[in-house]
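Need Aromatic amino acid aminotransferase's 3D structure for a figure. Predict it.
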Amino acid sequence: MSEKSPKLRAELDGIPTYKPGKPAASGGAVAYKLSSNENPYPPLPGVLESAVAAAGNFNRYPDMACTGLVAELAERFGVPVEHIATGTGSVGVAQQLIQSTAGPGDEVIYAWRSFEAYPIITQISGATSVRVPLTDGDVHDLDAMADAITERTRLIFVCNPNNPTGTVVRRAELERFLDRVPSDVLVVLDEAYKEFVRDPEVPDGIEFYRNRPNVAVLRTFSKAYGLAGLRVGFAIAHEPVAAALRKTAVPFGVSQLAQDAAVASLRAEDELLGRVGSLVCERERVHAALVAQGWTVPETQANFVWMRLGERTADFAAACEKAGVVVRPFAGEGLRVTIGETEANDLFLHTAEAFFKEL
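Structure prediction for Aromatic amino acid aminotransferase:
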């Protein structure tokens, strides 16, 4: 009898693999991980304690509706509880959004380069990616994205600030773009790095969601709140979209540890703002130092900087790793460097200065 392999979906053929930031080397010289946009600070006050308390009951299923967390978020953002849906990080909710809107024959539009999970989760759904190149300044080309809309378009991602470039779209241009999008196409404002924004012209996506039923806002506790290892994110969207997200969520996907830690993090906002402020100051210092060295680096409103190095990307990444700093290269394009501890940032800047002199 001939043996055949199980039949798998053709959409999975050639699917790109998500590449996490390379971990810092263990043992030997000190190595700093600046490759995953993680928060270098330990958990906020009260967060670890809440997680430890919840761990005592992990023989039980978590609250599938995330009732306590949803109530806290609804109060924090001034939205109905029915307009909030949770998931395993903002990327988990992003996948739920695509599952809710797009399938074979449908199109999902996003800028490129942008968050590398977009093409993966789009292809998994069987939908077609429509990638719109960034401008020469590494910013979303919203006019071109609007021009790319067809009758098959179901969802558009706008990553603001954009990962991995850190660049932003501002209020007036985003409003013009939204005015051009048909009301039956969902626009997802992916704001994973919202807390790091200091440009007053960069809007809070929630202000657009309030009177536009086709706008949803994505947020996460992984970045500013420092809960990357617990996997909890959420969307704010009008009831039909939020209800669809609850239908497509993995049952019990957000652990009770994550829920309780997220609530404790929201209640430690003063401490959070202080930490984020310190990281923003370091971001400005690193950016200014790179410009002073001679690099062309786009303005960033996230917790990382982007350096377009083309064919020298791998060489610079290797130089950083040799110096004890792990960064995130995108082969042939550039690299993203997370703002970390002051010592790590100094080590990176020293490496960048030496590398630039050899160009």
